[in-house]
User: What shape does this take?
Amino acid sequence: GAVVSQHPSRVICKSGTSVKIECRSLDFQATTMFWYRQFPKQSLMLMATSNEGSKATYEQGVEKDKFLINHASLTLSTLTVTSAHPEDSSFYICSAPQGGAGNTIYFGEGSWLTVV
Amino acid sequence: AQSVTQPDIHITVSEGASLELRCNYSYGATPYLFWYVQSPGQGLQLLLKYFSGDTLVQGIKGFEAEFKRSQSSFNLRKPSVHWSDAAEYFCAVGRGGTSYGKLTFGQGTILTVHP
Assistant: This one.
């Protein structure tokens, strides 16, 4: 069945460095993907909408210069956390709908980011 | 703006007992409603979804949910819980059109199953 895969599943980086997380739709094309952040024991909060071939749309309060999103192909979106700080440590999850309204929305396995 | 409320943060049931997880939503039009399950440190798995038609929706793993427009609710039920159902459950609401896929999640309900 359709799968959305994220990589890496876990990453530790030093404060001030950048880290890239990939989100791939494995057997379907996704013109739109979504990035969420989930802090421990909290719910998922939408960060941004990733649009293939155009700029991402960010939710209010999310710094677009800090969380760079690139959706260069119909099967890949990347989230780059730039100049990471310990407060950016979180679980990042992507999702992609398999088609238009009413179709299943698949989520990736998530990526744990720890900034030390 | 759309919102979702899951009133119960933590529910404990005995294995074999019935289960109902509550979900109330706020949305101006006909919503797209979802229930997802998340095991610790894992991604989300879709249990079921509703967007039109029969208001009683059947999902995977023996789960079902009923859409009640008058109560703005979409409660998840299972007649007999198994120990493997222990996880966190999220209700989510979304819209159609070009924004399809953009979800607002509830706070989640942690389910503990006692043997």
About this structure: Chain B has a mean pLDDT of 94.
